Amino acid sequence: MPAALEPDVILETRGVRKTFGGLVAVDNVSIKVRRAKLTLLIGPNGSGKTTLLNVISGFYKPDAGRVIFEGRDVTGWPPHKLYHLGLARTFQVPQPFPKLTVLENVLLAARGHPGESFAAPLRKHSWIRTEEELVEKAFEILRLVNLIHLWDHPAGMLSGGQMKLLEIARTLMSGAKLLLMDEPIAGVNPTLAHTILRFITKLKEEQGITFFIIEHRLDIAMQYVDYVYAMARGRVIAEGRPEEVVSNPLVIDSYLGG
Ligand SMILES: Nc1ncnc2c1ncn2[C@@H]1O[C@H](COP(=O)(O)OP(=O)(O)O)[C@@H](O)[C@H]1O
Ligand SMILES: [Mg+2]
Protein backbone atom coordinates (compact mmCIF):
# COMPACT_ATOMS: atom_id res chain seq x y z
CA MET A 1 0.00 0.00 0.00
CA PRO A 2 1.49 3.42 -0.86
CA ALA A 3 2.34 5.31 2.32
CA ALA A 4 0.62 8.41 0.93
CA LEU A 5 -2.73 6.80 1.69
CA GLU A 6 -1.84 6.95 5.37
CA PRO A 7 -0.31 10.36 6.00
CA ASP A 8 -0.32 9.78 9.76
CA VAL A 9 2.15 6.91 9.38
CA ILE A 10 5.64 8.38 9.63
CA LEU A 11 7.51 5.08 9.64
CA GLU A 12 6.68 1.67 8.35
CA THR A 13 8.52 -1.62 8.09
CA ARG A 14 7.32 -4.24 5.64
CA GLY A 15 8.42 -7.83 6.11
CA VAL A 16 11.79 -6.95 7.62
CA ARG A 17 14.11 -9.87 8.19
CA LYS A 18 17.59 -9.84 9.68
CA THR A 19 19.76 -12.89 10.28
CA PHE A 20 23.11 -13.40 11.98
CA GLY A 21 24.60 -16.56 10.53
CA GLY A 22 21.92 -19.17 11.11
CA LEU A 23 20.04 -17.07 13.66
CA VAL A 24 16.92 -15.24 12.54
CA ALA A 25 16.93 -12.23 14.86
CA VAL A 26 14.08 -10.37 13.12
CA ASP A 27 11.58 -12.41 11.15
CA ASN A 28 9.10 -10.80 8.75
CA VAL A 29 8.32 -7.79 10.93
CA SER A 30 5.77 -5.27 9.64
CA ILE A 31 4.93 -2.34 11.87
CA LYS A 32 3.52 1.16 11.54
CA VAL A 33 4.55 4.09 13.68
CA ARG A 34 2.07 6.96 13.73
CA ARG A 35 3.04 10.61 13.67
CA ALA A 36 3.15 12.53 16.97
CA LYS A 37 2.52 9.35 18.97
CA LEU A 38 4.60 7.35 21.43
CA THR A 39 4.83 3.79 20.18
CA LEU A 40 6.44 1.25 22.47
CA LEU A 41 8.24 -1.95 21.49
CA ILE A 42 8.32 -4.60 24.19
CA GLY A 43 9.43 -8.22 24.38
CA PRO A 44 11.73 -10.46 26.40
CA ASN A 45 15.50 -10.33 26.05
CA GLY A 46 16.73 -11.61 22.72
CA SER A 47 13.40 -11.13 20.95
CA GLY A 48 14.94 -8.89 18.26
CA LYS A 49 13.93 -5.42 19.45
CA THR A 50 17.34 -3.78 19.25
CA THR A 51 18.07 -5.49 15.94
CA LEU A 52 14.85 -4.08 14.49
CA LEU A 53 15.85 -0.60 15.70
CA ASN A 54 19.27 -1.09 14.13
CA VAL A 55 17.67 -1.96 10.80
CA ILE A 56 15.29 1.02 10.94
CA SER A 57 18.08 3.45 11.85
CA GLY A 58 20.40 2.13 9.14
CA PHE A 59 22.98 0.44 11.36
CA TYR A 60 22.10 -2.93 9.81
CA LYS A 61 20.92 -3.71 6.32
CA PRO A 62 17.96 -6.11 6.38
CA ASP A 63 18.18 -9.43 4.54
CA ALA A 64 14.65 -8.84 3.29
CA GLY A 65 11.87 -6.31 3.62
CA ARG A 66 11.56 -2.54 3.35
CA VAL A 67 11.80 0.45 5.65
CA ILE A 68 9.59 3.38 4.65
CA PHE A 69 10.14 6.78 6.30
CA GLU A 70 7.89 9.72 5.39
CA GLY A 71 6.62 7.80 2.39
CA ARG A 72 10.14 7.22 1.08
CA ASP A 73 11.82 3.85 0.75
CA VAL A 74 14.98 4.26 2.87
CA THR A 75 15.92 0.59 3.14
CA GLY A 76 19.67 0.24 3.58
CA TRP A 77 20.33 3.98 3.86
CA PRO A 78 23.27 4.76 6.16
CA PRO A 79 22.52 6.28 9.59
CA HIS A 80 23.86 9.76 8.79
CA LYS A 81 21.59 10.08 5.75
CA LEU A 82 18.56 9.07 7.82
CA TYR A 83 19.67 11.46 10.54
CA HIS A 84 19.63 14.34 8.09
CA LEU A 85 16.16 13.28 6.89
CA GLY A 86 14.91 13.58 10.47
CA LEU A 87 15.24 10.10 11.89
CA ALA A 88 17.51 9.94 14.93
CA ARG A 89 18.37 7.26 17.39
CA THR A 90 19.55 7.44 20.97
CA PHE A 91 21.60 4.58 22.21
CA GLN A 92 20.99 2.37 25.16
CA VAL A 93 24.42 3.36 26.38
CA PRO A 94 24.68 7.12 25.77
CA GLN A 95 27.76 8.15 23.84
CA PRO A 96 28.56 11.81 24.38
CA PHE A 97 32.04 13.26 24.06
CA PRO A 98 33.19 13.13 27.72
CA LYS A 99 35.78 15.93 27.60
CA LEU A 100 33.50 18.41 25.86
CA THR A 101 31.01 20.43 27.87
CA VAL A 102 27.33 19.60 28.06
CA LEU A 103 26.57 22.58 25.80
CA GLU A 104 29.23 21.60 23.26
CA ASN A 105 27.82 18.10 23.11
CA VAL A 106 24.37 19.45 22.34
CA LEU A 107 25.72 21.89 19.74
CA LEU A 108 27.65 19.16 17.94
CA ALA A 109 24.47 17.14 17.58
CA ALA A 110 22.97 19.93 15.49
CA ARG A 111 25.28 19.11 12.68
CA GLY A 112 25.12 15.35 12.81
CA HIS A 113 28.39 13.52 12.64
CA PRO A 114 31.13 15.96 13.62
CA GLY A 115 33.95 14.42 11.57
CA GLU A 116 31.98 14.79 8.40
CA SER A 117 30.60 18.23 9.21
CA PHE A 118 33.85 19.95 10.07
CA ALA A 119 35.33 18.84 6.78
CA ALA A 120 32.80 20.66 4.64
CA PRO A 121 33.56 24.37 4.12
CA LEU A 122 29.96 25.07 3.08
CA ARG A 123 28.68 23.71 6.33
CA LYS A 124 31.20 25.78 8.20
CA HIS A 125 29.76 28.90 6.63
CA SER A 126 26.23 27.92 7.52
CA TRP A 127 27.42 27.23 11.07
CA ILE A 128 28.86 30.73 11.39
CA ARG A 129 25.68 32.27 10.03
CA THR A 130 23.40 30.47 12.47
CA GLU A 131 25.69 30.08 15.46
CA GLU A 132 23.71 32.36 17.73
CA GLU A 133 20.44 30.73 16.84
CA LEU A 134 21.85 27.28 17.51
CA VAL A 135 23.27 28.28 20.88
CA GLU A 136 19.91 29.72 21.82
CA LYS A 137 18.15 26.51 20.81
CA ALA A 138 20.72 24.42 22.70
CA PHE A 139 20.12 26.40 25.90
CA GLU A 140 16.38 26.07 25.46
CA ILE A 141 16.67 22.29 25.16
CA LEU A 142 19.05 22.10 28.13
CA ARG A 143 16.50 24.03 30.17
CA LEU A 144 13.78 21.57 29.15
CA VAL A 145 15.78 18.53 30.20
CA ASN A 146 16.93 20.14 33.46
CA LEU A 147 20.61 20.22 32.57
CA ILE A 148 20.92 23.98 32.24
CA HIS A 149 22.89 24.36 35.48
CA LEU A 150 25.52 21.96 34.12
CA TRP A 151 25.95 23.56 30.71
CA ASP A 152 29.67 24.25 31.12
CA HIS A 153 30.55 20.99 32.88
CA PRO A 154 32.36 18.25 30.97
CA ALA A 155 29.85 15.62 29.87
CA GLY A 156 32.05 12.93 31.41
CA MET A 157 31.11 14.23 34.87
CA LEU A 158 27.37 13.62 34.49
CA SER A 159 25.51 10.88 36.36
CA GLY A 160 23.89 8.01 34.47
CA GLY A 161 20.48 9.66 34.51
CA GLN A 162 21.91 13.00 33.40
CA MET A 163 23.73 11.24 30.54
CA LYS A 164 20.39 9.94 29.33
CA LEU A 165 18.92 13.43 29.48
CA LEU A 166 21.94 14.71 27.56
CA GLU A 167 21.47 12.02 24.94
CA ILE A 168 17.82 13.01 24.59
CA ALA A 169 18.85 16.68 24.36
CA ARG A 170 21.37 15.86 21.63
CA THR A 171 18.77 13.94 19.69
CA LEU A 172 16.31 16.84 20.00
CA MET A 173 18.99 19.23 18.80
CA SER A 174 19.24 17.27 15.59
CA GLY A 175 15.79 18.54 14.68
CA ALA A 176 14.60 14.96 14.33
CA LYS A 177 10.95 14.27 13.56
CA LEU A 178 11.23 10.66 14.66
CA LEU A 179 13.23 9.64 17.70
CA LEU A 180 14.16 6.01 18.22
CA MET A 181 15.22 5.16 21.75
CA ASP A 182 16.52 1.92 23.19
CA GLU A 183 15.49 1.70 26.86
CA PRO A 184 15.72 5.42 27.69
CA ILE A 185 14.62 4.97 31.30
CA ALA A 186 16.40 1.71 32.12
CA GLY A 187 18.37 2.23 35.32
CA VAL A 188 16.91 5.70 35.83
CA ASN A 189 15.15 6.43 39.12
CA PRO A 190 11.33 6.61 38.85
CA THR A 191 11.13 10.37 39.47
CA LEU A 192 13.56 11.15 36.67
CA ALA A 193 11.92 8.51 34.47
CA HIS A 194 8.57 10.29 34.82
CA THR A 195 10.28 13.62 34.08
CA ILE A 196 11.70 12.18 30.85
CA LEU A 197 8.36 10.65 29.85
CA ARG A 198 6.44 13.85 30.62
CA PHE A 199 8.92 15.75 28.50
CA ILE A 200 8.48 13.25 25.66
CA THR A 201 4.70 13.74 25.92
CA LYS A 202 5.15 17.50 25.74
CA LEU A 203 7.31 17.26 22.60
CA LYS A 204 4.77 14.94 21.05
CA GLU A 205 1.87 17.24 21.74
CA GLU A 206 3.50 20.62 21.21
CA GLN A 207 5.96 19.87 18.43
CA GLY A 208 4.47 16.81 16.77
CA ILE A 209 7.61 14.75 17.33
CA THR A 210 7.18 10.98 17.04
CA PHE A 211 8.73 8.47 19.42
CA PHE A 212 9.42 4.79 18.87
CA ILE A 213 10.84 3.39 22.07
CA ILE A 214 12.03 0.06 23.39
CA GLU A 215 11.25 -0.10 27.09
CA HIS A 216 10.85 -2.73 29.77
CA ARG A 217 9.71 -0.42 32.54
CA LEU A 218 6.02 -0.76 31.68
CA ASP A 219 5.02 0.07 35.23
CA ILE A 220 6.37 3.57 34.65
CA ALA A 221 5.89 4.03 30.89
CA MET A 222 2.36 2.70 30.51
CA GLN A 223 0.40 5.89 31.15
CA TYR A 224 2.35 7.80 28.47
CA VAL A 225 2.11 5.22 25.68
CA ASP A 226 -0.24 5.40 22.68
CA TYR A 227 0.41 2.07 21.02
CA VAL A 228 2.42 -1.08 21.72
CA TYR A 229 4.06 -3.78 19.60
CA ALA A 230 5.20 -6.93 21.38
CA MET A 231 7.91 -9.13 19.88
CA ALA A 232 9.02 -12.65 20.76
CA ARG A 233 11.59 -14.76 18.92
CA GLY A 234 11.99 -12.21 16.17
CA ARG A 235 8.30 -11.82 15.38
CA VAL A 236 5.52 -9.44 16.29
CA ILE A 237 3.15 -11.44 18.48
CA ALA A 238 0.73 -8.69 19.55
CA GLU A 239 -0.10 -5.04 18.96
CA GLY A 240 -2.64 -2.54 20.20
CA ARG A 241 -3.45 -0.31 23.12
CA PRO A 242 -1.07 -0.82 26.05
CA GLU A 243 -3.72 -2.40 28.32
CA GLU A 244 -4.68 -4.90 25.62
CA VAL A 245 -1.13 -5.94 24.81
CA VAL A 246 0.08 -6.48 28.36
CA SER A 247 -2.94 -8.62 29.19
CA ASN A 248 -2.52 -10.71 26.02
CA PRO A 249 -1.74 -14.31 27.08
CA LEU A 250 0.80 -14.73 24.25
CA VAL A 251 2.72 -11.74 25.56
CA ILE A 252 2.57 -12.93 29.17
CA ASP A 253 3.75 -16.39 28.11
CA SER A 254 6.66 -14.94 26.12
CA TYR A 255 7.95 -13.17 29.23
CA LEU A 256 7.63 -16.37 31.24
CA GLY A 257 9.73 -18.14 28.62
CA GLY A 258 6.74 -20.00 27.17
N1 LIG B 1 25.53 -8.38 16.10
C1 LIG B 1 25.00 -9.56 16.38
N2 LIG B 1 25.61 -10.72 16.02
C2 LIG B 1 25.07 -11.92 16.28
N3 LIG B 1 23.90 -12.09 16.93
C3 LIG B 1 23.25 -11.00 17.32
C4 LIG B 1 23.74 -9.69 17.07
N4 LIG B 1 22.85 -8.79 17.59
C5 LIG B 1 21.85 -9.50 18.11
N5 LIG B 1 22.08 -10.83 17.95
C6 LIG B 1 21.18 -11.91 18.37
O1 LIG B 1 19.90 -11.63 17.81
C7 LIG B 1 18.87 -11.92 18.75
C8 LIG B 1 18.07 -10.68 19.02
O2 LIG B 1 18.87 -9.78 19.74
P1 LIG B 1 18.41 -8.31 20.11
O3 LIG B 1 17.87 -7.66 18.90
O4 LIG B 1 19.54 -7.65 20.78
O5 LIG B 1 17.23 -8.60 21.14
P2 LIG B 1 16.55 -7.64 22.21
O6 LIG B 1 16.97 -6.25 21.94
O7 LIG B 1 15.08 -7.88 22.05
O8 LIG B 1 17.02 -8.12 23.56
C9 LIG B 1 19.55 -12.48 19.98
O9 LIG B 1 19.54 -13.89 19.89
C10 LIG B 1 20.96 -11.94 19.87
O10 LIG B 1 21.88 -12.79 20.51
MG1 LIG C 1 17.90 -4.84 23.20
Structure description:
The chain has 258 residues and is α/β, with parallel strands linked by helices. The chain has a single domain, classed as 3-Layer(aba) Sandwich (Rossmann fold). The chain has 10 helices and 10 strands. Helix 3 (102-109) runs parallel beside helix 6 (160-173) and helix 5 (121-144) packs across helix 6. The chain binds adenosine-5'-diphosphate and magnesium ion. Magnesium ion binds at residues 49-50.
Strand order of the largest sheet: 6-7-8-3-9-10
Question: If you average the pLDDT, what whole number results?
Answer: 87
Helix-strand string: EEEHEEHEHHHHEHEHEEHH
Q: Are there runs of 5+ residues with pLDDT below 50, and where?
A: 112-129
Bound molecules: adenosine-5'-diphosphate, magnesium ion
Largest sheet: 6 strands, mixed
Write down the CATH topology: Rossmann fold
What radius of gyration results from the CA coordinates? 18 Å
Distance between the termini: 34 Å
Question: What is the CATH architecture assignment?
Answer: 3-Layer(aba) Sandwich
- CATH top level is Alpha Beta
> Structural class, from secondary structure content?
alpha/beta
CATH fourth-tier homologous superfamily: P-loop containing nucleotide triphosphate hydrolases
- Provide a count of the helices: 10
- How many beta-strand segments? 10
Shape: globular
How many domain units? 1
How much of the sequence lies in strands comes to: 15-25%
Helix content: 25-40%
